[in-house]
Fold this protein.
Amino acid sequence: MLRILSLKFGRVYRCGKFLFIVALFVILLMNTHNLLASFQRNELTDRRFIGLNKCPACFGTSWCRKFMNSQVTFEMWGRLRFLDFFNVKNVYFAQYGEPREGTRRVVLKRLGSNQELAEIDQKICKRATGRPRCDLIQGMYKTEFARLNGDVRLLTPEVVEGWSDLVHCPSQRLLDRVVRRYAETKDSGSFLLKNLKDTERMQLLMTLAFNPEPLVLQSFPSDEGWPFAKYLGACGRMVAVNYVGEELWSFYNAPWEKRVDLAKQLMDIAEQLTNNDFDFALYLLDVSFDNFAVGPRDGKVIVVDAENIIVADKRLIKQNKPENYDVWYESRYEECDKEACLSFSKDILCSRVTVDHNYYAICQNLLSRFATWRGTTGGLLHDPPADLVKDGRLTALLDECTRPQKQYGRFQAAKELQEYLTELTQLSNTNR
């Protein structure tokens, strides 16, 4: 009976697969004219397509000349608009060309799904008129984004606190850094708002409120050693960043030595974002295999999605001394039936000097046996060699880093795990 059912299911699956291919072929055949037109035109020069017509309710204009001069072009599949149905995150791969530098691959982001972008328009209109629909450009000039005019000297925490994760608990030092490093103005380098044009100021504030990822990349640039993708520029609602490489998930079944090296780099990232010379703690609130990528040449791990990051100013915390500010904070492991979920309190992350959140996030969602992603379990360090299984140290450190059994156990486990992974990496390099 079971065999008969399996045979029937197999026939249904093959039949469904065949019908899907036939349907796709018919769609392609019916849209042959549109397909040919897609390959002939460059939609990245279309003001409406890239959202330039929505400015200043947009993310910037620094790369508009490059877009309009056709220096930025979609790679082949990106030109097929019917595939946008599957591209929920609105992330595209493109080629960018400079006469003296040749072409290179870049990533274009709309910084949200179509629904999220439509919600931005509605929120702007509600802020301006109280209604969900309005003339968007006129509406921008009636919002708080425009009321911060050139007479306001500084962007202050009282104005923007809570707008997004980046400024959930902003300090003046952080905001000065954001304004000073704002890349969508020709006169960057000053922390004074009056040095920005009205449109630039509105674009900065809108980005800060709705998706601060570009501002994270600008404020903590890769050129200074921060583990983020390099910000290139924006035109309308299309932002360009450098292409890093394949996503971390592609290395899930890579050779053990490679996975150990990647795991070590991930723990290094957790340490750098937690403890650095600038006394800014950057806490990753969304940690999954899709949010990291690996360079094809140097094998370097980079954070490629920086929208959900809280920045806590440790100097300000030490200065203000909120309740229990000097008590070490341990993130609590909780059972979860979803992928890549984390338990945290934003307010606590903003009020403690010593926090283990980044170690917890990396260990739980990426490295340990508790990590689940796309139907798999076991994490990046799954199936270690037999001698490491017998030794038991790696498993013990990963477990303690994820579900600590001792008070402050995760802090110690994270430190020892980082050292142990370094030893394993050096050992594998020696044996090559």
